[in-house]
Design brief:
The chain is mainly α. It is about 55% helix and about 5% strand. The chain binds iron/sulfur cluster (SF4).
Length: about 325
């Protein structure tokens, strides 16, 4: 996860919540992708430190356990950069130019001259992954092309220099639709996000004016939950019985949108409150968070150094 600020519900439900479950069954590595942040926000590098602490507080609050999972900071494991460099020598430029997210980012950000780092970020990601020789990489469907690229790069390395890297598979995460308060996709840059750090009052203050079915202008108008962003949140938080009652109340104009939102809040606030309380306990001790990440980075580095020993032996560059 890039350190670009606090974790919002979209990040939580799209990744973090799944990470917490995965650590039950797998030996997991999760990292703060601070070099990746530089591919689009190089001038903001000084903010990365503070954001890293905030984000890690969210991770710990959500239940990532530094005893079970290795939580680390990318830039504290410089082996990632070494592997990235070597991989760059065997990766055709066309493979990177073809990555859909590259073109999208160039267009979205209106970049006239995208950096070398931005073009190379899927390759850095390949290095991040291959370093730990994982069996699985937990990703959403939009990231599958990146895992495919990682597999191709691993094959290319193995064919060129000798078999070091097994090819990892994508472990697909079902990502629920998480709308922001304006009905668009939840995103920090849209200013429509609900954060794990938000208090119940703040969440209530964001849900009450949240966009609903635009055709339901008056309380007496029936609505359609299938096109209502509030109902997307019901699907995530509200148990079937209450959810169905809201849906039929909406369709028959039996309930108003504020009633519907009150039911949502009743189910949404308690689990988020539990995360927030844990999060706050960590956030009050930022030094401990930094220590956890430094310890995790040392642990990650032990694995990375072993991998790079095998890489060096395969590449045979030095006499
Ligand atoms: S009643 Fe609920 S589902 Fe229906 S439009 Fe209002 S907020 Fe959306």
């Amino acid at each position: 996860m890039r350190p670009t600020g606090m974790v919002h519900l979209g990040n939580y439900l799209g990744a973090l919540d799944n990470w917490v479950k995965l650590q039950e069954d797998y030996d997991c590595f999760f990292f703060v992708a601070n070099w990746h942040m530089l591919t689009t926000d190089a001038a903001d590098s000084a903010a990365a430190g503070g954001y890293t602490v905030e984000m890690a507080a969210d991770w710990l609050g959500a239940g990532l356990d530094p005893e079970r999972s290795t939580l680390f900071i990318q830039s504290l494991v410089p082996e990632h950069a070494l592997l990235h460099l070597l991989l760059s020598m065997v990766t055709p430029l066309g493979w990177l130019e073809r990555v859909p997210t590259f073109k999208e980012m160039v267009e979205q950000l209106g970049l006239e001259s995208p950096s070398y780092g931005l073009l190379g970020y899927p390759l850095l990601q390949a290095a991040d992954i291959l370093m730990y020789k994982p069996r699985w990489v937990p990703v959403g469907a939009d990231q599958v092309p990146h895992i495919e690229l990682t597999r191709e790069v691993a094959r290319r390395f193995n064919n060129t220099w000798g078999s070091v890297f097994p090819e990892p598979d994508a472990k697909l995460t079902q990502i629920p639709k998480v709308p922001g308060t304006d009905g668009r996709k939840m995103s920090k840059s849209y200013g429509n996000a609900i954060y794990l750090a938000d208090s119940p009052e703040e969440i209530t203050g964001k849900i009450k004016p949240m966009v609903t079915d635009p055709a339901r202008k008056r309380r007496s108008d029936p609505g359609n939950p299938d096109i209502c962003p509030v109902f997307d949140l019901h699907r995530i938080f509200t148990p079937a019985h209450d959810r169905e009652a809201c849906a039929s109340g909406c369709r028959t104009a039996g309930i108003g949108c504020l009633d519907c939102k009150a039911v949502l809040l009743e189910h949404m606030l308690p689990p988020l409150q539990a995360i927030r309380e844990r999060r706050q306990r960590f956030a009050e001790k930022p030094r401990e968070i930094v220590e956890i990440l430094h310890e995790g980075s040392k642990r990650a580095r032990r694995t990375a150094v072993k991998t790079m020993d095998q890489v060096r032996a395969a590449v045979k560059l030095e006499p």
